[in-house]
Design brief:
about 70 residues; mainly alpha
Length: about 70
């Protein structure tokens, strides 16, 4: 859900940048830089989602271990 939202937003931002290029509000060099930034943001968000998922898995595992120790 979150990953799809990020993908949708970056696609929207890329499309808006293309429109700015067509309207001559930016040049092609700006678009290359923008595209690289969007790629980096997508990559960072993927890493953050992986970290959050692993944290959740570790947290669940630790809770299960504590519960088993109490019983």
């Amino acid at each position: 859900a979150i990953e799809q939202k990020i993908d949708d937003l970056t696609a929207l931002y890329r499309q808006q940048q293309i429109e700015r290029l067509i309207n001559k509000e930016v040049d092609a060099k700006d678009c290359v830089t923008f595209s690289q930034m969007m790629t980096d943001i997508e990559r960072i968000s993927d890493h953050l989602l992986n970290i959050m998922e692993e944290y959740r898995n570790v947290h669940i595992s630790l809770n299960q271990q504590l519960f088993e120790q109490e019983n």
